[in-house]
Amino acid sequence: MAKPVLLFLLSLVVTSHATCPRDSNNVRNQENQIHLLRPITGAAGRNIPEIDCLSWRLAVETYNLRNWGMLPSSCEDYVGHYMLGKQYRKDCEAVADVAIEYAKSLKLSGNGKEIWVFDIDETTLSNLPYYARSDVQFGALPYNATRFDEWVATGDAPAVPAVLRLYKTVLALGIKPVFLSGTKEKLRQSRISNLNKAGYRKWEKLILKGQNEPHSSVEYKSNKRTELVEAGYIIVGNIGDQWSDLIGTNVGNRTFKVPDPMYFIS
Ligand SMILES: *[C@@H]1O[C@H](CO)[C@@H](O)[C@H](O)[C@H]1NC(C)=O
Ligand SMILES: *[C@@H]1O[C@H](CO)[C@@H](O)[C@H](O)[C@H]1NC(C)=O
Ligand SMILES: [Mg+2]
C-alpha cells in the first residue's frame, strides 16, 4: 500500500526537475497538491549548508533538541528528500529489525496478557501524502488542526511498511497489539477503516483521545498505559515516532523510536 504511494511521490519529485518546463510543473503541482522539492545542492541564495540539517535531525532524533515547534524552513528541502527518499524507509526497517529480534527473544507467559503498544501517526500509519502537500510543506508551515483532521477523516493514510511487518510478527507471536494515539475520539470510524485498509486488522484495544484528557501527550499516554498495567497487561514493547510516546510512566519493557523530523509533540 505505502510503497506505490511513496514511489509515486518520489518519481514526481525526481522526474519533474529533469523533464518538465516551469509552467507545467506548476500545473502539475496544483493538480497533485505536491510540493516540488528543489535540489539539495546548489540551492541558490541559501547559505545554511546541508550538514546543519543533518545535525539538526540527529539532535531531534536523540531528544537533545526538544519543543522545537516547527521544522526550520531552511531544512524543508532536506527533510522532504529524507522522507520521500530511501533513507527514511531504510531507517524504519532498521528499527523494525531490532524490534522483531527482541520480540522473538521473549519468553511469553501464554496468559494472553502481553501487549505491544503502537502509536499511530508516523508509526503505524504514514501521513506523508499529507505532509508532502504544498500547503503543509513537511511541517515548515504552521500546524492547522482543521486541515489535518480533514486528512485523517479520509482514512487514506498508508501503512509504514516496516511497522506493519513488526505488527504482523507481534501478532503471530501471540503478543496483542494495542494502538494508543492522540487522534481525537470523534475520528474513531475513520481510523478503524484506515487501519483495516492499511493491513492492520486485529487489535486488543484502540485507545483514542477523549475530550477531557490532559493536553500533554506524555501525561495522556502515561495515564492510558497505567490503566493497561492496572488491568493486568504487561507492556513488553512500545513503539512511537515521538519521544512523548516513549517516556513517562509504564513505558514498557522496551521502547523503539522510528524517525520523524517533521514535527514535535510534547
Ligand atoms: C486551516 O485549514 C482550513 C481547511 O483547509 C482552512 O479553511 C483555514 O483557512 C486554515 N487556517 C489557517 C489559519 O490557515
Ligand atoms: C517487563 O516489565 C514488567 C513490569 O516492570 C516486569 O515485571 C517483567 O519482569 C519484565 N519482563 C521482562 C521480560 O523483562
Ligand atoms: Mg506519532
Automatic annotation (TrEMBL):
CDD domains: HAD_VSP. Residues 1-18 form the signal peptide. InterPro entries: Acid_phosphat_B-like, Acid_phosphatase_pln, APS1/VSP, HAD-like_sf, HAD_sf. Keywords: Glycoprotein, Signal, Storage protein. The keyword Signal applies. Coiled coil: none annotated. GO terms for molecular function: acid phosphatase activity; nutrient reservoir activity. Pfam families: Acid_phosphat_B. PANTHER family: ACID PHOSPHATASE-LIKE PROTEIN, VEGETATIVE STORAGE PROTEIN 1-RELATED. NCBIfam families: plant-AP. May function as somatic storage protein during early seedling development. Belongs to the APS1/VSP family. This is OLC1v1014901C1. It comes from Oldenlandia corymbosa var. corymbosa.
